[in-house]
Design brief:
Length: 499
């Protein structure tokens, strides 16, 4: 049986007890890149030992980590098969001042591990998502810029400016507006509680149903950013680094707020929720805000929303998005180009209409073969200016019935030989019948949005209307014709351009 001979003491004679203790992080610059921390033990909150003048190095204990066996390695450093492979969860060092739980194996100061973090009291408004709140402190400039009475994403309570006494209603304490509000504003999603703002934070309800992870984000290295010293007070050469973060990526799995339930499924009715506490009727299996979302610091997102039964992908600037709806629509918006290339076939099939409309030109070219257009009905071609048809070889024009040719000016026919054959040839007889002109396509009015338009004064980027042969044209957000807003008004019959 092995006998432990190491001394369970910190150099200097302090004996460490066995068990879990609370500590404060004072450093995280681990030269081994293994996320180790430098901590001081907190006697004043329950530990038997602790001295702000002493610090301990503790290693990172991951909730899940593994590697292939050392014994199965080879010695060929160029062979991937010969080396070890690792996998698991990796959460880098936490911030200075964070309270952590640490344990020392057998009381050995050289075998310390931090095994968890202790959240600050009331400090979970930004976890795992940046939760929106009506309790925000806005400057005059912000009030004008955001121009809304709806909730905005907020930061944590400023604990230096607020005394959190027993009985204080922390939910009414005003907080600073989180900078991601500017991203939502640029995207046009500032007042959209599906694709933009969210309630998914640790402070939404009890019991809570929000799960997820948020990263701290990059350091704020701006000219006016706060700085801090890394290391314990006895460090001879402390390192100064940024103290603030710019916000990070959030991964949120929200099982929904069942205090509110959707009155009708998203494919059947508009965005209306019943309040359960008021005994209002709705679908008990469709709680408010049930979704999975990954959103980056700058606002790129992938959203799978159960409550609204849609999938939404959008970029940070709001210049491109795609949505898959409950009833089977796929809506795509791009401020710039949509480009598709295939080295084989590109097939389009619509059981109803295929509508193409261009604000300038429509160009179609078959570079290596023939082009064929077929229709079981009539074919109409309208050109408001000149029309030309040029072929490099023979040109055949066949009509199964009468042929009419009308011209508002002179009609010229020129050829090397002209042959006219008919039962009767009448010239200047007054018997000719004028050709019937083709009828133009009907048009519809669509709401138009543009980020170059104003958000304030309730305009919300609305920029008049657009006349089109189509009934729905995806626009920059906030687009008024998302299916989940009014599915009964956006049925296949109501979106039929010929209706």
């Amino acid at each position: 049986m092995a006998i432990e001979k190491r001394s369970p003491e910190k150099p200097g004679g302090t004996k460490l007890p066995v068990g879990i203790m609370m500590a404060k992080v004072v450093g995280y610059l681990d030269p081994s890149f293994m996320c180790g921390l430098e901590v001081t033990l907190l006697r004043e909150i329950g530990n038997d030992i602790g001295d702000s003048g002493q610090s301990y190095s503790v290693k990172y204990a991951s909730p899940f980590y593994g590697s292939t066996a050392y014994e199965n390695m080879g010695q060929n450093v160029a062979d991937f098969n010969d080396t070890q492979k690792t996998y698991g969860m990796w959460f880098p060092a936490v911030e200075i001042g964070t309270t952590v739980l640490v344990a020392f194996v057998n009381g050995d100061a050289s075998e310390g591990y931090f095994i968890g973090c202790v959240p600050g009291r009331f400090m979970n408004q930004m976890i795992p998502a940046i939760g929106a709140s009506s309790a925000f402190e806005a400057t005059a400039e912000q009030k004008k810029k955001y121009d809304t009475t709806l909730p905005l994403p907020v930061a944590e309570i400023n604990r230096k400016a607020n005394t959190l006494e027993k009985g204080t209603n922390t939910e009414k304490i005003k907080k600073a507006i989180h900078p991601i509000a500017d991203r939502f504003l640029e995207q046009g999603l500032l007042e959209d509680d599906v694709r933009g703002i969210t309630t998914s934070s640790g402070r939404r309800m009890v019991p809570n149903s929000v799960f997820g992870i948020s990263t701290p984000g990059p350091f704020d290295r701006g000219a006016n950013a706060k700085k801090q010293f890394i290391g314990s007070p006895q460090s001879k050469s402390p390192v100064q680094l940024p103290a603030s973060r710019l916000g990070g990526t959030t991964l949120v799995m929200d099982d929904g707020d069942d205090r509110f339930i959707r009155k009708k499924p998203a494919g059947e009715g508009p965005v209306e929720y019943a309040e359960v506490e008021k005994k209002e009727k709705g679908n008990v299996d469709i709680p408010f805000n049930e979704y999975f979302r990954v959103r980056t610091r700058t606002g790129h997102q992938i959203l799978l929303h159960n409550s609204e039964d849609l999938i939404y992908i959008g970029n940070a600037r709001g210049t491109a998005w795609i949505e898959l709806t409950s009833n089977g629509k796929i809506d795509i918006y791009a401020e710039d180009s949509i480009s598709i290339h295939t080295e084989n076939d590109l097939n389009f099939r619509a059981d109803r209409d295929i509508n193409f409309e261009a604000g300038r030109n429509v160009n179609i070219k078959a570079a290596g073969g023939k082009m064929q257009l077929e229709s079981v009905g009539s074919v109409n071609i309208i050109a408001a200016a000149d029309g030309k048809i040029t072929v490099g070889a023979g040109f055949d024009l066949v009509s199964g019935s009468g042929t009419k040719l009308s011209s508002g000016g002179a009609t010229n026919i020129k050829s090397s030989d002209t042959n006219i054959d008919g039962g009767n040839i009448n010239l200047n007889s007054g018997l000719a019948v004028a050709a019937t002109p083709a009828s133009p396509l009907s048009t519809h009015t669509n709401p138009k949005t543009s980020s170059s338009s104003e958000w304030v004064n309730k305009k919300r980027y609305q920029n008049g209307t657009m006349t089109s042969i189509m009934k729905r044209i995806p626009m920059h957000e906030p687009w008024l014709l998302h299916e989940n807003q009014a599915p009964t008004l956006l049925t296949p019959t109501s979106t039929d351009r010929d209706t």
